[in-house]
Amino acid sequence: IRDIGVTGVQTCALPIFQNYNFALIHYNFEFGGQVANVRIFDSQGRLIKELANNDIIGTTGFYRWDGDRSTGTKAPIGYYMISFETFDEKGAIQHFRAPVGIATTF
Q: What is the pTM assigned to this prediction?
């Protein structure tokens, strides 16, 4: 896993030719009790997977994306965008975005 420079969120690539065929989206916040929405979009901006919908989260944790779509089929090779949104009881909203890719050997 590598830090991609988005505060609070880390991701990794999905090299499907290795044993690491998933992405971990780590979060680390100062305060818990926020509500999170985590979504995966394809390169055309279409929603392909929703990992969290109004989940109440603690200060640290992670979500795992297995490179699949909401239909259960594998997403094709390419680049994707992870959208991680949180909001708290005061209405403060935070948006994080991070790219992730699915690759293979030729």
A: 0.80
